[in-house]
Specification:
The complex is a heterodimer of chains A (43) and B (236).
Chain A lengths: L1 H41 L1
Chain B lengths: L3 H24 L12 H29 L2 H33 L7 H22 L4 H14 L2 H11 L19 H43 L1 H9 L1
Helix pairs in contact in B: 1-7, 2-3, 2-5, 2-7, 3-4, 3-5, 3-7, 4-5, 4-6, 7-8
The chains are: A mainly alpha (43), B mainly alpha (236).
Chain lengths: 43, 236
Amino acid sequence: VIYLYIAYAAAVVLIGGYVLYLIAQVRSVRSELEELERRFRTR
Amino acid sequence: MFSSRLQLAAAGSVLALLAAGAMAFLYAPKDALQGDVQRIFYFHVSAAIAAYAAFAVVLVGGVVYLWRESAVADRVARCAAEIGLLMTTVCLVMGMLWAKPIWGVFWTWDARLTSTLVLWMIYAGYLLVRRVAEPGRQAARLAAVVGIVGFVDVPVVHFSVTWWRTLHPGPVLSAAGGPQLPPEMLYAFGVTVVSVLALTFVLLAVRYRVELLFEAAAALRADAFEPRRTAALVAE
């Protein structure tokens, strides 16, 4: 039974990890966009 | 940033996944031969189906890109390849953890396992091509060709259990004479497939929007550092 739980935990970690990666990507690109927009406004 | 429809779809897919988990663990009966570990089947096979679907999107995106040079098709294909690779990884890892208690080993060079590993490598190569090649038309064309040729492995993976009778079990759902599963297992499997496909669609939509944001940032960056070049391009 332990393999059943490890298998589902692995699936959660893989998909959850990918979701966290997407969140990090969104945060990174949003801060970059804000920085670029600020630079444009002050130019 | 994300539309309310997408947020609703994301919430719906999470609820569907929870329902699928409950059905796989609580509703579906225990397998008489394998015991509880057989419950890995529900998400293992669903992840494989979701990967097939994502790679079919890569195929269609590649064909449309080569035909019309559509940036949207190329973007969709790129995002779908990433999601397909994720689902193939989930399928492989769950399969290995199912193999250990049943076959006694995590991995064996069986036809289904080997062809699935090759599939994983093809789409990892697809993403590598996108990263290594010069961005723009060249990378998109190369990736489209890899995505189209790589899809040849999908039917090989699917029919490998019929063409070569090795260790992996043969078809259970598409077996001659109908699905070889009791109705409760079949319902649980149906709910799992739908929920994993919904999750795949939501991930693809989110990944597509992230890609759009990256492209917007790249365009702004190019303008911030080379305003004269951008102005010249606009004047053209």
